[in-house]
Write a structure and sequence with these properties.
By secondary structure, the protein is an alpha+beta fold. The chain has 3 domains: 92 residues, no CATH class; 245 residues, Purple Acid Phosphatase, chain A, domain 2; 130 residues, no CATH class. 16% of the residues lie in helices and 29% in strands. The chain contains 8 helices and 35 strands. A 6-stranded mixed sheet has the order 16-17-20-21-23-22. It has a 5-stranded mixed sheet with strand order 15-12-11-24-25, covered by helices on one side. α2 runs parallel beside α3. The longest helix is centred in the N-terminal third of the chain and has 22 residues.
Length: 568
């Protein structure tokens, strides 16, 4: 060997050993070791000015490449050595990764909520956080998950109702059905009902982690920040209307639940969670909602983060995207970045927006924007498990307190289910249009279907199908024949439910009943030659259909509802 070449090689080896600490022989395989003086981590040099870094390994100690990692503002990916690095944004509160497909959801040992983030101090000169991902065995392209609309936990009592009701039933569902693939839940915001003390967050976290699926496992619930989860008193009034003010209002939430914008992947589905409430002005009085005054939409910071997140998603045309946000945006054209969001989603095979906020069940199609499978981008607005703010089991649109189970097969939904908390078989209510609802009480508000011109002067059978939409097939079966019922295609009030809320003595509802109701668009009707109550040997059959799937679900009902009760 040439002497000059040998000396040069030796000098290089010595320099390398000096710059990278040699691991102790006892060190476990895959241990990335310590960062040395010139900042080498697992074979990667940490660049000058980068104070936020770490390494992501799998459970066998191998580096996991191309994992997106963010502090909420800057977004990078791990290199071939599993190392990520960046300069922390001065506004950052957490560092977190976007879970790649094929890996398990890590859960906090105490809360059972997903644990994909670490809290950070962005001003620190050295912020190292490592993560370990556990590989899933087998394919995970078929799976099921639960979804909750607004919860509004305000105290120990409402948390207990939530635990014993919706969460117990969700846990039982996964016990009984044992669906294939990984399972989890998503809570779509307004988790807290304006109470910002740590005790209330403790109630909410404990409740959200309580869905016992058996064998010592609890369903991990991802969370979304809602407008009532913002605390506008945390902001600086002098910055009213700026991103800086909005960011401050999320500090209570992020301290309890972590990042407000993040993503994760399961099978062929990319889930994105967004903060889409821009808090702009502090409350005007001590008694007003702590969320203050604001608007639905994506701030510029959130939009820039989202663009980067989606840029990291490969093969979009073969995947489904589910964007989870609190405020519904269907039909509104003046919401910041609404159109850009829907346009970005159209690059995916199938595309859905999940939202809450309205406390109603509704499906909206962005008919002019198609995903790659040819179906419109769709927004699903979710009913609530709390009913009427925990005072009544009936929600503002009169649907019962409920949760949802979604079933995925590949890159689209095979089906979904709207499951009532107090009666899993309750999917619709049927009415005779001749009925009038009244109570001999001091309120004595009278309601009649003739308030709707559509039903005036005739005998109609009405069907309120809580989570139905225009694609469902609904028929009246009578006398050996099947008669198609017509989709009303308009928002209608449920007058039976309104009479119940306005006239019955329901604590907390009587004094403010007008605020606690809304109309629903999920109505079907058929005109008869006699009052519906005079029919015999009949039933209504509703066949649920799902875009991108040949699967159907069939629900039936054969009785007229004349009054509602709270006897559960």
């Amino acid at each position: 060997m040439n002497r000059r070449f040998f000396l040069s090689l030796l000098a290089g080896i010595v320099a390398a050993c000096a710059s990278k600490k040699v691991l102790d022989p006892e060190t476990e395989p895959g241990d990335p070791g310590e960062v040395t003086d010139d900042r080498m981590l697992n074979g990667t040099k940490i660049m000058d000015g980068h104070n936020l870094y770490g390494v992501i390994l799998d459970d066998e100690g191998h580096p996991v490449r191309n994992v997106p990692v963010s502090d909420g503002y800057r977004y990078v990916r791990t290199d071939d050595n599993g190392v990520y690095q960046t300069k922390a944004d001065k506004r950052a509160t957490h560092v977190y990764y976007s879970l790649p497909a094929g890996y398990a959801i890590e859960q906090d040992a105490t809360s059972h909520l997903p644990s994909f983030y670490r809290r950070i101090d962005p001003s620190a000169s050295d912020i190292r956080n490592d993560f370990t991902l556990k590989k899933l065995g087998g394919a995970s392209t078929a799976f099921s998950f639960a979804v909750l609309g607004d919860i509004h936990i305000r105290d120990a009592a409402t948390a207990a109702q939530f635990k014993s009701g919706a969460m117990a039933r969700i846990g039982q569902y996964f016990k009984d059905n044992a669906p294939a693939g990984p399972s989890f839940g998503i809570s779509l915001g307004d988790i807290i009902n304006n109470a910002k003390d740590p005790e209330t967050y403790g109630y909410a976290k404990s409740a959200l982690g309580s869905a016992d699926c058996g064998n010592g496992r609890h369903l991990p619930f991802f969370t979304v920040i809602g407008n009532h989860d913002h605390n506008a008193r945390m902001g600086d009034a002098s910055q009213s209307g700026t991103d800086g003010f909005d960011l401050g209002t999320a500090l209570n939430y992020s301290g309890a639940f972590g990042p407000t914008c993040y993503s994760f992947n399961v099978g062929a589905v990319h889930f994105v969670v967004l903060d889409n409430y821009i808090s702009q002005k502090a409350p005007t009085s001590a008694g007003s909602a702590l969320s203050g005054q604001g608007r639905s939409g994506l701030s510029d910071d959130v939009w820039k983060w989202l663009e980067k997140d989606l840029s990291f998603v490969g093969n979009k045309a073969s995947k489904m995207i589910v964007v989870c946000q609190h405020c519904h945006v269907r039909g509104f054209t003046d919401i910041p970045h609404r159109d850009e969001l829907v346009a970005q989603m159209s690059a995916f095979h199938s595309a859905y927006i999940f939202s809450g906020h309205a406390h109603i069940c509704e499906t909206y199609k962005y008919s002019k924007v198609k995903a790659q499978n040819g179906n419109p981008v769709m927004e699903r607005i979710h009913g609530v498990p709390m009913g009427n703010f925990w005072y009544s089991i009936y929600s503002p649109d009169s649907s019962p307190a409920a949760f949802y189970i979604y079933h995925v097969n590949g890159n689209d939904f095979s089906s979904w289910e709207h499951i009532c908390v107090h009666d899993a078989e309750d999917h619709m209510r049927l009415y005779d249009s001749n009925d009038v609802y009244d109570r001999p009480t001091d309120w004595s508000h009278q309601y009649a279907w003739e308030k709707e011109s559509l039903f005036a002067g005739g005998n109609f059978l009405l069907a309120h199908i809580y989570d139905g939409d225009e694609d469902w097939e609904v028929t009246l079966e009578h006398g050996g024949e099947s008669h198609k019922m017509t989709f009303a295609n308009k928002r209608i009030y449920d007058y039976c439910a309104h009479s119940h809320l306005a006239n019955d003595n329901i604590a907390g509802i009587r004094t403010s009943w007008k605020y606690h109701w809304d109309s629903s668009e999920n109505w079907w009707y058929i005109k008869l030659d006699r009052p519906a109550s005079e029919l015999s040997g009949w039933r209504v059959v509703a066949k649920a259909k799902f875009p991108g799937s040949s699967e159907t679900k069939t629900y039936t009902c054969d009785r007229i509802t004349r009054s509602l009760t709270e006897s559960v």
